[in-house]
Write a structure and sequence with these properties.
It is a single chain. This protein has about 250 residues and is α/β, with parallel strands linked by helices. Helices cover about 45% and strands about 15% of the residues. Strands 3-2-1-4-5-6-7 form a 7-stranded parallel β-sheet, sandwiched between helices. Strand 4, helix 4 and strand 5 form a beta-alpha-beta unit. The longest helix has 29 residues. The chain is globular, with a radius of gyration of 17 Å. It starts with a strand and ends in a 12-residue tail after the last strand. The chain binds nicotinamide-adenine-dinucleotide. Nicotinamide-adenine-dinucleotide binds next to helix 1, helix 4 and helix 6.
Length: about 250
C-alpha cells in the first residue's frame, strides 16, 4: 500500500507538533516545517518518519526551496497543513504598520505561498489542504485588528482554494480553534482574558493541542472525502454562544 505523506508548517511546537505526531501515528511520513530550526530539530528527534525542514513561510524563495525539498524527500505530497502563525493583540489606533505586516506576512502570505507551491504536487495525489484560522477570524473584538483580519482572510482563502482546486480533486478546509494553552496564547492572554474565555466557552475550558490536531487529521483523511470549503470551529462551543471575544 502507498505510504501517505503530509507537510505541516509551524510544526516545532504547539498545534503543529501535535498534528505531525498524529499523522506519524497513523503511518504517514511528515515534513515538519518551521522557521525555528533549533526547536524543530529538537521536536523531530526520535520521531520515526519525520523530516524536519527549516523554512520561513513568509519568504517566497524559502517556500519554493522547501516545497522542492519536501517533494524530493517524501516522494509525494498528500496533505498540506498551513498552521504556522503569529499573534498580535492590539486595537487599530495602537497597531503600527510594522506589527500589521509581521502578522500578515506569516498568517496570510505564508498560507498563499505554501498553497501555490504545493498545488502541482497535490494535483498528482488529489490531496487535501487544511488551513488554521481562529475564532478571532469569525468574530471581531476591540483587541485583534491584525490577527483577526489575517484569520478572516484565511477563512476566505480556504473557500477560494476549494472553489478553484476542486476540479483537480483537491479539497481545502479550515479549522478555527478556540483558545489553546500554547506559547502563542500564553504570550497574549492576560488573566482577565483567560477568565473571560472560561466563562464564555460552554465547555468552560481551553482546548488541547491534540483536540485541534484530531480535527485537522480528520479533514485530511478519506473520511472527509466530500467535505471542502468548510471552516470548522473547534472551540468548546464558543462560536455558538453569541458572546463577544474577550
Ligand atoms: P505556537 O506559537 O505554539 O507555534 C507556532 C509555530 O509556528 C512555532 O513553532 C513558530 O516558530 C512557527 N512559525 C511562526 N511563524 C513562522 C513562519 N513565518 N515560518 C515558519 N514557522 C513559523 O502557536 P500555536 O498556538 O500552536 O498556533 C498554531 C496555529 O493555531 C496558528 O496559526 C495560530 O494562529 C492558530 N491558533 C492558535 C490558538 C491558540 O489559542 N493557541 C487559537 C486559535 C488559532
Amino acid at each position: 500500500m502507498t505510504q501517505k505523506t503530509a507537510i505541516v508548517t509551524g510544526a516545532a511546537r504547539g498545534i503543529g507538533l501535535a498534528t505531525a505526531r498524529q499523522f506519524l501515528a497513523e503511518g504517514r511520513r511528515v515534513a515538519m516545517v518551521d522557521r525555528d530550526a533549533e526547536a524543530l530539530a529538537e521536536a523531530a528527534e526520535g520521531l520515526e518518519g519525520a523530516v524536519p525542514v527549516p523554512c520561513d513561510v513568509s519568504q517566497p524563495d524559502q517556500v519554493a526551496q522547501m516545497m522542492e525539498h519536501c517533494a524530493r524527500e517524501l516522494g509525494r505530497i498528500d496533505a498540506l497543513v498551513n498552521n504556522a502563525g503569529v499573534a498580535d493583540f492590539g486595537p487599530i489606533e495602537d497597531t503600527t504598520f510594522a506589527r500589521w505586516r509581521r502578522v500578515m506576512d506569516t498568517n496570510l502570505d505564508g498560507v498563499f505561498l505554501c498553497t501555490q507551491a504545493a498545488i502541482p504536487h497535490l494535483r498528482a495525489t488529489r490531496g487535501a489542504i487544511v488551513n488554521i484560522a481562529s475564532i478571532s477570524g469569525l468574530r471581531a473584538s476591540t483587541l485583534r485588528v491584525a490577527y483577526g483580519t489575517s484569520k478572516a482572510a484565511v477563512i476566505h482563502l480556504t473557500m477560494q482554494q476549494a472553489a478553484e482546486l476542486g476540479e483537480y480533486g483537491i479539497r481545502a478546509n479550515c479549522v478555527a480553534p478556540g483558545p489553546v494553552n500554547t506559547k502563542l496564547a500564553l504570550a497574549v492572554h492576560t488573566p482577565e482574558i483567560r477568565a473571560a474565555y472560561h466563562d464564555a466557552i460552554p465547555l468552560n475550558r481551553y482546548g488541547s493541542e491534540d483536540e485541534i490536531a484530531s480535527v485537522i487529521v480528520f479533514l485530511c483523511s478519506d473520511k472527509a472525502s466530500y467535505v471542502t470549503g468548510q471552516t470548522i470551529a473547534s472551540d468548546g462551543g464558543f462560536q455558538s454562544t453569541g458572546v463577544g471575544l474577550p
